[in-house]
Structures are given as structure tokens and as C-alpha cells.
Amino acid sequence: CTGNGICKCRVCECFPNFTGSACDCSLDTTPCMASNGQICNGRGTCECGTCNCTDPKFQGPTCEMCQTCLGVCAEHKDCVQCRAFNKGEKKETCEQECMHFNMTRVESRDKLPQPGQPDPLSHCKEKDVDDCWFYFTYSVNSNGEANVHVVG
After folding, report:
1. Residue 60 above 80 pLDDT?
2. What are phi and psi of 38, to 5 degrees?
3. Residues 128, 150: contact at Cβ < 8 Å?
4. pLDDT score of 116 more than 70
5. Cα–Cα distance measured from residue 74 to residue 55, given in angstroms and rounded to the nearest whole number
6. Which terminus of the chain is more exposed, N or C, with fewer CB under 10 A?
7. Domain architecture of the chain: domains with CATH
């Protein structure tokens, strides 16, 4: 019973919070919690502690990554700008609003992570407050940690 139940007459009797014929399905929804507090970002179901994304555009451990959505780059643009360059619309509120990702600076665009890595990756090209282009990537790893690489 995978250590999550007791075998009685060749049938597993599962401990609380476990189900399945071998008690190998956790009913704990904590790993499915998205950063907005919703289970699977409201775009999937939590099955055995893993999100099954029902909206095909969304993927990742908590259904928060959307490669085809325009939103990923635009959504994080202001936070990347204030964290990397100390400017932009969120400059004053950067500490409160923009600490939800790990940030790494790279020297040039060819040093940014490239597609083909295991985590879904968005390449972003956005204009800053001075009307100059800046480049960054946004990805979420299997632990649900957001990672930003920015040229600067």
C-alpha cells in the first residue's frame, strides 16, 4: 500500500488523505496551489497532488504557464524593470509587489536560457519607460519557482 495504508485481505485500507487501490494517490491539494491561491490556477483539476490542466493553453505544475498568451511578458514587465533597472511604474512598490521570482542578470541576449530546457520558457521583448527595448525570459520550474533572466 506504498506506506500509505494497511493491507487487509489483499486490499489496501488507505490512511486519511490517501486513496487508490495501492493508496498511491494523495488527496493533499497543497502542491496544486497556484500563486493566486487557486487550485491549479482555476484552469485544471488536482489529481493525486498533481495538476491536470483542463485548459490546453496552460501547462506547468500549477497550470500557470501559457506560452501562447500575450500576458506572460506584459504581466511581468513592470516587475522585471524595477528589479533589474530600478525604474518603471512599480519602482516605488517593487519590494512589496515584485519579489515573487528569482532574478538573474546576463550580459547579452545569447546568454538567455534557450528553448529546449525542461521548464516552459517565455522569451520577452518589452519597452521600458524610456522607450528602449529590454529583453528577459520567464520560466517556472517543477517546484513552482519563477525564474527571470534579464539582459542588463
Report:
1. yes
2. -95, 150
3. no
4. no
5. 21
6. C
7. 5-65 (2.10.25.10), 67-151 (4.10.1240.30)
